[in-house]
Design brief:
The complex is a heterodimer of chains A (623) and B (189). By secondary structure, chain A is of the alpha/beta class. Chain A has 26 helices and 19 strands. The N terminus of chain A is likely disordered. In chain B, the strands form 2 sheets. A 5-stranded parallel sheet of chain B has the order 2-1-3-5-7, sandwiched between helices. Chain B has a two-stranded antiparallel ribbon with strand order 4-6. Chain B has a domain of 127 residues: 3-Layer(aba) Sandwich (Rossmann fold), CATH 3.40.50. Chain B starts with 6 loop residues before the first strand and ends in a 15-residue tail after the last helix. Chain B is elongated. Classes of the chains: A alpha/beta (623), B alpha/beta (189). At the A-B interface, helix 26 of A face helix 3, helix 5, strand 6 and helix 6 of B. The complex binds flavin mononucleotide, iron/sulfur cluster and FE2/S2 (inorganic) cluster. The site of FE2/S2 (inorganic) cluster has 12 residues of chain A, from helix 6.
Chain lengths: 623, 189
């Protein structure tokens, strides 16, 4: 018996041992540091295509954590999988923009060619096919990730030929170019994805002299840098619009020896892709801005949190970082100034919108599940590992670098009162010229629509699902912090589109992306989505509108982070701006009887089970 | 001088446990005062099965789990000026609505009945059948609250509501002075 048992395992044992060595090797590579858990798990996922229970045990042992702690992280991120995934995993963006751009045909092509259904893995383990929310390619939708590669502008034909190529052993990279390996990192990025710069403004996308801002900053006192950024009126471009100078001042004022500068390149808000373009075309400027921030607050370590969907940009960013180190504008004694030390690491995310929330971003960098933190304390006071941490958006850092070069007055003079400078808008949806537009703050939506040739718009979603959906009579409203604030997403919908379908999609997005910590956000958004389905099925009445408002108010009031606080916005803003859409499908009670209750469908199932008809509601009963 | 007209009240128990009707009896000796003001029409308390005339107030215990509940509830709506949902089952489905939790099934009602009559571990059902007498009303796909089916005018919350709460609601309603409950009376924690 004993012998039989050991031979039974004999075949697997060497492989198990090899796998476990590979995993301990990965843990070693990250110093067995539990704070690097996300990197460890990503590496294991890449290598084995899943995080197996044994892998979790091995990782737990190496990092000194419990297995359940490891599983808590592994199960949190959608790019990490607790079941085996295909060697090639195809993730199709299922955003409403892609659906309107012909996603269904693309899905069908992949399903036909690969012989698997969406959401499954082929039996031979070669392919997985699944949906993922917006991957930041909305201007060239439908788009998909194929492992670490991005393919865009998919059609049913293109999808077919991609699937065929992959089946005949092409690597995903080969889809970009047959000469992929010979390309530079920048070329690899731009061959795969168009930057689509449609309008360059004077701050970011026009000509930008290299390191001019850093040069000026290197001879200024930290306090002077903060003062200059503050005087420029620069406000955060990630959505919340906090004054950047004030943020830096708070971090600098904390008594601590370690401070951190983090760049938020998570860009998860559906419809936003301007950071993608900056990371591609202005990576130097971004790092310059981070370096200036580091000098301003006294940080020596920085981190770029790059969303998992943008992994195709990682190599490019690394190469820019390396090049800057060689040039002496990053690392130690920057610009020849003794003691001006600052270096940056790229931290990959793994498919979680919530990790764009700064507290969740920090949790994620600490190797924890990407859950927001209770505030206060704010990150500027106690952030990464308890130290003061400045978290800014990609665009914010780029602006800061330009402000140091051209001066606060120059920047302050652009835009309008309270919203200074330019802003990048990512425009997608029903318009002829989707892409990135750099414009001064203060334009009206109508003016922007003219530029993008989207005059047919019936609705515009400003700021993505967490922003505001406006209708034609609000197109005169202005794109400023005081009127229509936006992190940059502008999604245009023509009159052909069904508003409630859009709303339902975005509610399903929030359902999917809630971190689950607060019950009102985790459960409430499910109920909101169901209530919208009720409207779409024609089973709603005016009391359902009250229900939507009440439940939304509860979610807003009782959620811990910005996701919960903004998740009812698709509903609230359409209730406000498209009231007729809701009233048109609401039913009115007649003589006190609810028109929304349908007795026939309610007893249909029972008729089948009892194999008889209703003696009350079927006229022909007994015949 | 003729006496003021007495108000007519009807009551019924749908998918409830009769607990709310028991709670009505918890009004105790104040019932005598109340009965000076009202006549009881159709109700399990009088055993009158059909409305004898239009009523001022209909009191509903329980939600709707079968077609007969819907039929009766609609009959109440047609024949009563004011409808009151009494207790949690009437208000939101209550305990019977636990079966609504079976939602990830193509055939949730069948799953529920099979567990209740055939496959449940603590059963002794020698026929191995799901009861299906022709006199049994068809069940609904899920349990509905009264307000899902008809307009409801007032709710008296509780499981079951106390006799005091019921008495206070009814007597104020009869005096034309019922404007809902203050928070403290309907706090349960
Ligand atoms: C759910 C959620 C997602 C967010 N996603 C992003 C994001 O992808 N990129 C970003 O820069 N800010 C995002 N933010 C805002 C950040 O929390 C933070 O305010 C911002 O990074 C600060 O940088 P800024 O002041 O430069 O805008 C998000 C906030 C929430 C609540
Ligand atoms: S509001 Fe939602 S996303 Fe934010 S912490 Fe709570 S559950 Fe998580
Ligand atoms: S990539 Fe599909 S909507 Fe953004």
């Amino acid at each position: 018996m004993v012998e039989a048992h050991s031979t039974g395992n004999g075949v697997a044992a060497p492989k198990d041992a090899r796998n476990s060595r590979a995993i301990t090797g990965i843990c070693d590579r990250f110093g067995n540091d539990p704070h690097r858990m996300l990197d460890i798990l990503r590496a294991v996922q890449d290598r084995f295509r899943w995080i197996s229970p044994t892998a979790m045990e091995t990782i737990a042992e190496a990092t000194g954590l419990t297995r359940i702690a490891v599983e808590g992280v592994a199960s949190f991120y959608s790019f990490l999988s607790l079941e085996p995934k295909g060697a090639i995993t195809i993730r199709l963006c299922d955003d409403i923009v892609d659906r309107f751009a012909g996603l269904d045909d693309v899905v069908k092509s992949f399903e036909d060619e690969l012989g698997i259904k969406l959401g499954t893995t082929s039996v031979d383990g070669r392919f997985s096919l699944e949906y993922t929310p917006c991957i930041g390619m909305c201007d060239q939708a439908p788009a998909a990730m194929i492992n670490d590669i991005v393919v865009t502008r998919l059609t049913k034909e293109k999808a077919r030929s991609i699937a065929r190529a992959l089946q005949s052993e092409a690597r995903p990279q080969d889809l970009i170019s047959p000469q992929f390996d010979a390309l530079s990192p920048y070329e690899r990025v731009t061959m795969a994805v168009d930057s689509n710069i449609k309008h360059a403004g004077e701050v970011l996308l026009g000509p930008v002299p290299r390191d001019a801002g850093l040069e000026k900053a290197s001879v200024l006192q930290p306090e002077q840098i903060v003062a200059e950024v503050e005087a420029s009126g620069l406000r955060g471009c990630g959505g919340a619009g906090f004054t950047t100078g004030a943020k830096w001042r708070l971090a600098a004022a904390e008594a601590d020896t370690d401070r951190f500068v983090f760049c938020n390149a998570d860009e998860g808000e559906p419809g936003t892709f301007k950071d993608r373009v900056l990371l591609t075309e202005r990576a130097d400027l971004l790092i310059e801005g981070m370096t200036i921030a580091a000098r301003a607050v006294g940080a020596s370590e920085g981190l770029i949190y790059l969303r998992g969907e943008y992994v195709y940009l990682q190599e490019h960013l690394e190469s820019v970082l390396t090049e800057r180190r060689t040039r002496g504008v990053l690392g130690t004694d920057i610009m020849g100034k003794a003691g001006f030390d600052f270096d940056i690491r790229v931290q990959m995310g793994a498919g979680a919108y919530i990790c764009g929330e700064e507290g969740a971003l920090i949790s994620s960098c600490e190797g924890l599940p990407g859950e927001p933190k209770t505030r206060p304390p704010y990150p500027v006071n106690r952030g990464y590992l308890g130290h003061p941490t400045v978290v800014n958006n990609v665009e914010t850092f780029c602006h800061a670098a330009r402000i140091l070069d051209r001066g606060d007055e120059w920047f302050h003079a652009i835009g309008t009162k309270g919203s200074h400078g330019t802003k990048l808008f990512s425009v997608s949806g029903d318009c002829l010229n989707p892409g990135v537009y750099e414009l001064p703050y203060g334009l009206s939506v109508a003016e922007l629509l003219r530029m993008v040739s989207g005059e047919d718009a019936a609705a515009v979603l400003v700021g993505g699902p967490s922003g505001t959906m406006i209708s034609r009579d609000s197109f005169q409203r202005k794109l400023t912090f005081d009127d229509l604030a936006t992190g940059g997403a502008i999604i245009v919908f023509s009159g052909k589109r069904n508003i409630l379908e859009i709303v339902e999609y975005y509610m399903s997005f929030f359902v999917h992306e809630s971190c689950g910590y607060c019950t009102p956000c985790r459960v409430g958004n499910v109920f909101l989505q169901k209530a919208i389905q009720k409207f779409r099925k024609g089973n709603a009445d005016s009391s359902d509108i009250d229900y939507l408002r009440d439940l939304s108010a509860t979610i807003i009031e009782t959620s811990r982070c910005g996701l919960g606080v903004t998740s009812p916005n698709p509903i609230l803003s359409t209730l406000e701006n498209f009231p007729l859409v809701y009233s048109a499908v609401s039913k009115k009670s007649e003589d006190g009887m609810k028109a929304t209750f349908d007795i026939q469908s309610a007893i249909e199932e029972a008729r089948g089970i009892a194999k008889r008809r209703s003696y009350i509601f079927d006229r022909d009963y007994g015949k | 001088m003729s006496e003021p007209r007495k108000a007519r009240i009807a009551t019924t128990s749908l998918a409830g446990c009769f607990g709310c009707h028991m709670a009505i009896l918890d009004i105790d000796e104040r019932l005598i005062e109340l009965l000076k003001l009202v006549d009881i029409d159709r109700s399990p308390l009088t055993d009158i099965k059909r409305f004898t005339q239009r009523c001022d107030i209909g009191i509903i215990e329980g939600g709707c789990c079968n077609e007969e509940n819907v039929h009766v509830l609609r009959d109440f709506r047609r024949n009563c000026d004011v409808l009151i949902a009494l207790g949690q089952c009437a208000i939101m489905g209550g305990l019977p609505a636990m079966r609504n939790a079976i939602m990830h099934s193509d055939d949730p009602l069948r799953e529920c009945l099979e567990e209740a009559y055939i496959s449940g571990p603590y059963l002794r059902n020698t026929t191995h059948n799901i009861p299906n007498d022709p006199a049994l009303p068809l069940m609904l796909d899920k349990v509905y609250s009264c307000a899902d089916v008809v307009e409801i005018d007032y709710q008296i919350p509780g499981c079951a509501p106390s006799g005091d709460v019921i008495y206070s609601a009814l007597s104020r309603l009869l005096a034309g002075k019922f404007h809902g409950f203050d928070r403290e009376t309907i706090r349960f924690d």
